[in-house]
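Exercise: predict the fold of this chain.
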Amino acid sequence: MIVRIFLPFAIGYFLSFLLRVVNAVIAPDLISELDLSAADLGLLTSTFFIAFALTQLPLGVLLDRYGPRKVESIFLVLAAVGAFLFSWAESFPLLILARALIGFGVSACMMAAFKAYVSWVPKERLALINGCHLAAGGLGAIAGTAPVEFLADFMGWRGVFIVLAVMALTISALIYIVIPRRGEVPASESVAKQIKDYGLVFKSPFFWRIMPFTVMSQAAFFSLQALWSGPWLRDVAGFERDIVAWGLTLIAIAVFTGFLVGGIVTDWMRRHKVSPITIGFYGMLLCMIPQALLLFEMNSFFLVSIVWMAFGLLGTAGYLIYPGFSQFFPSHLAGRVNTALNSFVFVVAFIGQWAVGAVIELWPAQASGGYAGEGYQAGIIMLLVAQALGVVWYYLFPMFKGK
C-alpha cells in the first residue's frame, strides 16, 4: 500500500523539479530567440517561485480539507496548460504568464505528498519517506539537464515543453485514479476555522526561530541550482554548452544523492534522539562553504564539479525542516505548517533569483556576449550575507524570547 501511495506522488514531484530547473539548460535559446537580458531571464524563471508561493497558504487549507489526491490532480492540469502555453508563446509577457501557470500547477507536488504520508506512514518514518520522495525530485533535476539538452537538440525547446505538458496531464490522471480515497471526507471544521488555525503556526516560537535561515538557504539553493548554475559554468568557468550540460547533470546527481542520503541519515539519527531540524540546520550551515568557494577562480572541470556538487548535496538540507515541523505540530495541521514555511521560501526564492540577475546586469557584458564574472560574485555574496543573517537570528532568537 505504501508503494501505491508513494509512486504516483513521487512521479509528480519528478516533473515538478524538472520544470523548476529546465530553464538552466534552455537559457541560451531563450536569450538568443527572445533577446532577454539577465534581469529578464531571472524574472522569467523566478516567476515560477512567486506563483508557487502565492498558492501555499490556500493550498494548506485545501489539502487539509479535500485531501491530496483531488488537489494535486487538479493542480497538475494547470501545469499542463502552462507548459503548452510556454511552448507556443512568442512574447515575454506570454512566457511570464505560462511560467506562472506552471508554478501554480506544480505547487502541490511536494506538499500534497507530505500530507498523504502523514496519513499513511508512521510519524517516526516520515523523514525517510519524505527523503525518498525528494530523491524523486532529484531525478527530475537530473532529467532537466543533459537529457533535456538532448531532447532540445532533437525537437527544440518548444517541443520539450509540449512533452512536459503531456506528462503533466498523464500524471494528473494517474494520481486521481491510483491514490486511495481514504481521508477525503471534507473536514468538519469551517474554512474560517481552518484559516484561523494558521495562527497556531505563526504564533509558534519554534517556527520563527528556524524559518529565516531555512528561507534564506533555500532561496540561495533555488536561485543558483535552478537557473544561475548553467550561466555561471558558461561565463565564469568558460565551458562550452555540451560541457555545461554535463556539469549541470553532475550537480543534479548530487541533489538526488543529498535528498536520498538526507532521508536515510535522518531516519538513522532519530534513534539517537537527533531531530531533523538539527540535521537540517547544520547541513544548511555547511552549504555556505561551497557557495563561498564559488567566489574564487577555478581552472579545472574537476575542481568546479566538486564545488558545485558539494553545493547540490548540501543544498538539500533545508528540506529536512519540513518533516521536523510535521513531527512537532499536530497531524491535522500538517498541510498548513509546511505550506506556511513554503510560502516564505518561495517568495524569497523569487526575489533572490531575480535579484541575482539584476545584480549581474550591473556589470558590462563580456565581449563573447556572456555576463561578467564580477556580477556573479556580487550576486553570490548577496546570497551569503542573507544566509549569515539567518544564522545570527537563529542564535539570538532565544535571547529575544527570554529563554
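Check your answer against the key: The chain has a mean pLDDT of 88.
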